[in-house]
Amino acid sequence: MNRYLAIDTSSSYLTVLVCGGGEPVCIFEKDGALQHSVRLMDAVDEAFSRAGMRPQDCDFFCAVTGPGSFTGIRIGVSAVKGFCEGTGKPALGRTSFRVLAYNAEGKVLAVVPAGRGSYYVCGFDGEKRVSLAPAYVGEEKLKELSALYTVVSYEALPVPYVQADPAAGLLCAVRAAREEDLGDLAAFYLKKSQAEEERERREG
């Protein structure tokens, strides 16, 4: 399990990792303006070229499954499913929380801003095991939890936090995977999208 493609399109940034058993090739774009559908495949082709690999050389393909941008998550998951279907290789899903958790030691609270003063959170112990189940919380609850954990985020928060490195976190999260983690790939949402909520309100 040391040859793979891993991608993260769950936020405004774009991360593409290709590893052929040696030093991984990483393409990271800090602000993709959520244009992942335009940029992703070019970045994948570039990473494979620099690594001297082809998709069929991979042992598996990984996507970050969320939570985060609903559209971005769908793009990443769909791309990896396509690679798996085309090569017959398995998939690996890593949540945004787990990628964040590898950016700090000890008890970590992974936080993904959800807009409108709300946040997706998940707590991990020192062994990177989930100690607080994923939840959707407001600012006051986030402040309470920040007193119990080292908070890690990619984006600015109203509490002290460690600035995460998306590419480094993804690399560690993939390297820590076991064969039993391979399997079906599905987007991970903690709440419905704004469009879905508005449609449900209109429909009563």
Structure overview:
The protein is an alpha/beta fold and 204 residues long. The chain is built from 6 helices and 10 strands; from the N terminus they run βββαβαβαβββαββαα. It has a 5-stranded mixed sheet, with helices on both faces. It has a 5-stranded mixed sheet with strand order 8-7-6-9-10. A hairpin with a 5-residue loop joins strand 1 and strand 2. The longest helix has 18 residues, at 70-87. The protein starts with a strand and ends with a helix. The model has no long low-confidence stretch (mean pLDDT 93).
Please give a quick description of this structure.
The protein has 204 residues and is of the alpha/beta class. Helices cover 33% and strands 28% of the residues.
What coarse outline follows from CA principal-axis ratios? globular
How confident is the prediction overall: mean pLDDT? 93
- Please summarize the sheet with the most strands: 5 strands, mixed
Structural class: alpha/beta
Helix content: 25-40%
Arrangement of strands in the largest sheet: 3-2-1-4-5
**Termini, distance in Å?**
49 Å
